[in-house]
Structures are given as structure tokens and as C-alpha cells.
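Protein modeling request. Please complete all fields; requests missing the sequence field cannot be processed.
Requester role: graduate student
Desired output: 3D structure, C-alpha cell encoding
Chains: 1
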Amino acid sequence: MKLTRGERVFSVFNLVILSGVALVALYPFVYTVSISLSTAAEANRDSLHLYPRDVSLAAYRLVLSNPDILNGFANTILRTVLGTVLTVITTALAAYPLARRELPHRGLATFLILFTMIFNGGIVPTYLLVRELGLLNSVWSLVLPAMLTAFNIIIVKNFFQTIPESLGEAARVEGAGELSILLRIYLPLSKPVLATISLWTAVMHWNQWFDAMIYITDDRKQVLQNFLQRIVIENSTIMLDLGMTDLNVTQYTPETIKAATVVVTIFPIICLYPFVQKYFVKGILLGGVKE
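Delivered output (291 residues):
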């Protein structure tokens, strides 16, 4: 179909505006990568940093050779994998009965779950609960409090309701139990929404640092993001604690070290996102509009 002059002008206008917005959003990432790959002299240059004119991997060698950073990386991977797996399992188990119309007091149960989205115990009661359960200084203090969220349950419940009930009824006629129906029918048909909440949960756990600052006092069990937060804010103090003070001023500076740490931190999530992106829109749409 041939576009009118007004439609062509509108399309060009959209392209220009959205390209500008994309460049503004992309530049901080490009700047950080450029600084992380630059020598000290290049990093201190007062101009736009779209690419490193003088490349140096010294900052990455320093970051990746630091045992505290590597240990934090391993702790973050453990937290992310464990938290994501547990969240997907428990969310599916909670959403499946809520999606069944014959569940007694289904409306009340849904209301109580939604109620937790508005009111919660707060930081102090949660800390006291975690402490009384003996979870301090363990990965469980980072995983269990965030394992189930009302938003994820509602999204998955709504998606389950889009699956024809006749499939479950046919399985029951064949003698299948509820757990078998969930595992063999509902979960295989729910890959889009499960991939969506997996991505949400993985990104949340990967980026989270505040709860680790509260619950974890042993640096050997600390997550990578906490080290990153301390490097960015405390700068030279934390670098001294991490053994990053023997600086070769011709190769790297505190700024290049911070940039390299940021890139190392976000790189795994950037690699993961393209594999689940195709499920993202479908999972949100089908899980968000059905009731």
C-alpha cells in the first residue's frame, strides 16, 4: 500500500526521534566498554569515548585475577541459578490450583495473594524472620524471601487459564493425576510465560545487592554486585581492601577498573537475554490479559 505524504513524514519523524532515544540509551554502555578497554591516558581524555583509541586489557586482567571478585561471581551465579529454578517451580505449583475453577475459595485465595502486593512486613520484620530461621550468611537468605511473588503467580495463573480445560479432562479420563497433568500438559505448553518469569527472576537476582548487604557479613559469601557497589561508591577504600592498589598508572586507573567490573557484571545477562526474548512478548500478553 502506498503511503501518503503525511504518513511518510510521520515515519521519518518517528525514525529520527527513536534513533535519537536509542543513541542516548546506548551511549552509557558504549562509554563504559570504551573506558574499560582504554589505557590510563586514553581514559582521562576529555571527549566522547565511542571506542578506545589506545586499547589495554590491563583492567580486565586485574579484575578477573582478583580472588574476591571471582568468588563473588561464583556466589552470584549460584544465587541466580538456585533462585530462578526455585521461583519457577514454586510459582507453577502455586498458580496451577488457582487456575482451576473448581478450587474452593479461589477468589479469596487470589485476593490474599494480591493483598501482599500492596502491604508487606518491611525490612526489619523480614530481617528478624531470616535471623530467627538461621539463614543469615547463607545463600538461602537471598533466595527464599524472594522465591514467590504475587505478580509472577498472577501472570502464570492467567496463562494457565488460556490452556483448554478439555486437555486436562482428557488426561484425567486416562487416569492421570493433577501433578502429571501439570508436568505433562500445562508446563510444556507454558514455555513463553515460564521463560518470561525466568528472565525476570534471573535479572533480579543477578542485579540485587541490597539484601546481600543486610544478610551477608562474610566476604567469602558476598555476591559480585555488592563488590561492584562498594567499588563504585567507596572507590579507593574498597580497592585497598580488595588488593587493587598496586596500580600501573600508564595502564589503568580506578575509573577503568570500575568500568571493567561493570562490564564483567552485566555481560552474562546480555548473553542470556537474546535466547529468551522471543518468548517475552507472548508470555506477557497471554499472561496479563486473561482472567
